[in-house]
Amino acid sequence: MEEIVPIEIGNLIMLQYFYLSYNHLKGSIPSSIFNISSLLHIGLGSNNFFGYVWSNMFDYLPRLSYLDLGECQLSGRIPMSLFKCKELEVLYLYENRLEGTVPSEITNLTSLVHFSIGRNNISGQFPNPTPLLHWYDVSENNLVGEIPSSICNLSSIMGLYLLMNSFNGTFPECLGNLSSSLLYIELQKNNFHGKLPKNFAKGCTLQSIRINNNQLEGSVPRSLGNCKDLNLLDIGNNYLSDTFPNWLGYLDQLQVLILRSNRFYGQVNNSDVKVSFSRLRCIDLSHNNFSGYLPVNFFENLHAIREGHEKKSKPEYMIFTVLNGKQYCVVEDLSFTAKGLEMEFQSLLTSWMVLDFSSNQFLGEIPKILGEIHSLIVLNLSHNSLTGPIPSSLSDLSELESLDLSSNKLRGRIPIELTNIEFLEVLNLSQNNLKGPIPQGKQFDTFTNNSYIGNLGLCGLPL
Fold first, then answer.
1. Does residue 30 lie in a domain region?
2. CB-side exposure of 128: number of CA atoms within 13 Å?
3. pLDDT of residue 339
4. Which domain holds residue 321?
5. Is residue 394, in this structure, part of any structural domain at all?
6. Is 426 within 8 Å of 405 (Cβ atoms)?
7. Residue 138 has pLDDT above 90, yes or no
């Protein structure tokens, strides 16, 4: 049941800590709260409030050190009175309807450690960071301009979230130097250009790097090999030109690797890497210029996907972090081509296993060993130059939900064993040289002729 905050709360003139987050509260926030000059912490986030912030909202809160008004549906501009709160350490204003710019007076908050104004309608230039920041989140706004050199002074920065703005320019080289404190870099969906920093430090603590959907060029820096805790690397949808970075196989914590829609080329071969991609769960190499045979030794080393089919007692999500008692899923808004569609995931289960090598120049036969990658949910090898038969061993992919082998040069019959894949929801074998009768029964009775068109030798339903 939704309740309102009573105006009488302002009578508690000795109140220091006020937490009502996550309570389905509605109505406007009583102004009387902000007259309690003894308040140190205000936590009203994640409720169903409405209304505007007002200019003198924080005039009487000189000792305030914690403010959470995130997800409160508040409108208006960031009040200038906020910058009188010189002791403020935590500021959460994310997911509201705030507009206007971030005043330059933000630099008055020299004690600020957590700064989050993501998912608003804030405009203007890159807000100046204060020197003690650990977490800096201005994501999903309308901000423009370049990353200022002052970012290099953030010696304790752990999370840098600039995604989905209109930032441009190049990455400061100092980003690599900051990697001894940084855990998460989220710079995706901007207009950055130039090259990646070359100097990721020894002892790099980075766990997630997402710089996809920019205009970056050059190669993948070998110094990323210093980031031994890296779980996720998404550099897709850029203009990077390099051979397959097989040395990433030494990063034995890596679970998600997305290189799609770049200019990578050559063979995918990691025979010189002894411990190779053993924890990798999602790999997307699609829309590049990779060539040669599909890499058997690479598939042999995918132990997480080969052995991960043992059922868990409850669903587990890939990466979480906890800030000031709040839990966040770091793997957000990842997209994969699955089941014939571009699918975006707000969170990613550890059971979600993807292998996408589509839209390259791979040739030769589909290796039988792919049938041993038992936990695959999505297998996409479409739009290559693969030849030979479809291996019946693919029927061992008992968790498979989407299989796309379309637009290759595959020949022979469709193995009847594929009807044993219980969860197969999408099948695309179109535009090949397959022949013979289409298997019937189980999931195959749900597929339409779109799954098979362009194979002149096929016969039977649904053609």
1. no
2. 10
3. 58
4. 244-463
5. yes
6. no
7. yes
